[in-house]
Amino acid sequence: FQDSFRCHSVSLLAAEQQRDASRLEYSDKIILPPSCLEKLAQLEIQYPMMFQIANPRAMERKLHCGVLEFIAQEGMAYLPYWMMENLRVSEGDIIQLRSVNLNKGSYVKLQPQLTDFIKISNPKVVLEQSLRNFSALTKGQTFRILYNKKKYDIGVVEVK
Predict the structure, then answer these.
(1) How much is the pLDDT for 44?
(2) Same domain, 12 and 85
(3) Which distant-in-sequence residues (6+ apart) come within 8 Å of 138 by Cβ?
(4) DSSP, res 12
(5) For a surface tag, which of 17, 80, 104, 145 has the fewest beta carbons within 10 Å of its beta carbon?
(6) Boundaries of each Ubiquitin fusion degradation protein UFD1 N-terminal subdomain domain copy (predicted)?
(7) What is the 3-state secondary structure (H, E, C) of 80-144?
(8) Which of 147, 105, 96 is nearest to 125 (CA)?
(9) d(CA 119, CA 111)
């Protein structure tokens, strides 16, 4: 499966549907149109559904993600804002998406982007709980978590 979409922030969808944006924003799950589910079902894609998402204007900018729902308007994909930042895309820009099969990881080296993260009471537990919202990590990406109403950016240094 491979297709292009106009991307928008999940916060925009949350505002339109009066949903909790934090549930959508602090994960690596995207929202795609219903037609994608139909195409993916025909292709008998492997579960869980995993995708590589890229900026066609900067193909070195790639991430991996899962899908939360198939409720987006046709031609649109909704992404967490941290993903848009990593891909260097803005509201309405075109992204490319393709299905991928990823090997299960055995090791990840993470680096908080601010020393404030180390000062929280139990950063390891906070990270472990936050990572449950993620399907895949990509070396070089920076993802965002929320703890006690504060945002923390975490860099992915290495994956195995």
Answers:
(1) 84
(2) yes
(3) 62, 63, 64, 156, 159
(4) H
(5) 104
(6) 1-102, 104-160
(7) CHHHHHHHCCCCCCEEEEEEECCCCCCCEEEEECCHHHHHCCCHHHHHHHHHCCCCCCCCCCEEE
(8) 147
(9) 14
User: How far does Cα 110 stand from its chain's mean position?
Assistant: 16
Q: Give the pair of three-digit tokens for residue 104.
A: 């299960």
Strands 29-31 and 58-69: parallel
- Count structural domains, the chain: 2
Residue 51, beta-bridge partner list: 65, 99
The DSSP code for 33 is -
CATH number of residue 36's parent domain: 2.40.40.50
The residue behind tokens 């929202």 is 31
Q: Exposure string (b/e) for 101-134, b if CB count within 10 Å is 16 or more?
A: eeeeeeeeebebeeeebeeeeebeebbeebbebb
Q: CA separation (Å) from 160 to 19, 116, 137, 156?
A: 35, 27, 10, 11
Residue labelled with tokens 């916060």? 11
pLDDT digits (tens, 9 = 90+) for 74-128: 999 999 999 999 999 999 999 999 999 999 999 999 999 999 999 999 999 999 9
